[in-house]
Structure formats: C-alpha cells, structure tokens
# Entry
Amino acid sequence: MPVVPSVVGRLTAIIPIIVILIILLSMMIKIVREYERAVIFRLGRLIGAKGPGLFIIIPFVDSLVKVDLRVVAVDVPQQTIITKDNVTVGVDAVVYYKVVDPVKAVISVENYHYAVMMLSQTTLRDVIGQVELDDLLSRREELNKRLQRIIDELTDPWGIKVTAVTLKEVRLPETMTRAMAKQAEAERFRRARIIEAEGERQAAAIMAQAAEFYEKHPMAMRLRELQTLIEIAREKNLIVVTPESTHSNVIGTAIGVTKAVEEKK
# Structure
C-alpha cells in the first residue's frame, strides 16, 4: 500500500517540471513564414536575420523583431500644393515599397513604415511645387518615375526598395475647372473653323481646276449641262429654264425629259 503514495508524489513532482519544459520549448522554438524574416538580438547585440522556417533562440537572452518582406502600399493623404505657376491643387498618391534588407530596416530607422509615409508626403510636395499645372496634368508618368527615383534613393540606406509611385488624383479649384473647360471649348471651335476654312480652300482649288478643264473642253461643259438637267428632271420639276444661248437640241432634250416626267405623274 505505501507504493501508491510514493508514485503519486513522484508524479506530483514531475508535472511542474514538464510544464516548465513545455513553456521553455515554446519560448525557444520560433517559426517565421516564407515572406517574413526575424532579426535576432542577444543581450541587445545584433546577431542577424533568420528565416524562413523553424529556428531556436535562447529564452530571456534573445529577442526578435519580425519584418514583412512583401510589397506594402502606402496611401499618401491629399496634399494641398501650390504649383510653379501659382495654382493651388490637391494631390494624393500611392507609394509601393518592400523591405530588401530586414537588418537595416530594424536598426537604421525607428519605424520604417511611418518614415516612408512622411518622406513620401514631403517629396510629393517638393516635386509638384516645381512643375506647372499643364505638366502636372499631361506628364503624370514622368512625374511618377521622378518621385519613385527620389524616394528610392532616400530610403536605400534603410534597406527599403520603392518599386512604384502613382499619382492617384489631382483636384483643381472650381474656378480653374471652369476656365479650363472654356479654354477647351474655344480650342475645339478654333479647330472647327480651321477645318472648315481648309475645306473651302480645297473645294475652291478643285473648282478652279474644273473651270480650266471646261474652258479647254467645251463639249465636256455641254455634257455637264445635260447631266444637270437630268438631275433636275428626277426631282420632278415641271419648268426648266435654260440660257438663251443654249443649243436648240439641248433645249429640246430638256423639254422632252420634262414631258416624260409629267406623263409619268
């Protein structure tokens, strides 16, 4: 009978040890995903980055900071900016970046995400303030590349790569919008007048060539007169007026065409 209390006493002593070991193992064994890295510090000193997968650290001695290596999109809030030609506009953008060196991202800057956002805002204000409104509206692709290049150079010491910058929206004052609409309307009217004048010029040139041709070939002019009379007859006009100098057979032909139309009616 004394055996049972001894076994129970041993189990009672072993259970706390097992619990402590489980806790220690859970603190020692760490797992990071494929798109993550763990920056390890041992008693405050940098050890390096580990991952992905499973690794072991020393509890109460090592500490780690997880860094996400995926592309992050930063929505830059709308900035009120005065352009080079003194026009106030509201511009917002999106910055895409990713961490390429997790060690630099942790030890070089306190909060790299916040730092990238603040840097994007100031760079956006500086670059847009150096361009005119027409360039801002028509050369967005060039401005996107310029912003991306500047921000990427400034964040390179932080171990961050800026992959793209996109101007999302440019908001203009209402008065400026109306002025631009009037300008566009005037431009379209100007183009219409130019096209109309060009058409008149081409038509006049062709008519001058036709007049020269008819002058050299009188029979062609007669044939054209007959064709005109036939077209008039098709319109069911009952009276045909021709010049007095017209040849008698031409007048007779016209009268015959007119009578034919009358009989058909």
About this structure: Strands lie at 29-32, 36-42, 45-50, 53-56, 62-68, 72-82, 88-99, 160-171. The CA atoms of residues 116 and 253 lie 90 Å apart. The mean pLDDT is 82. The chain has four domains: 3-68, 72-172, 175-216, 217-265.
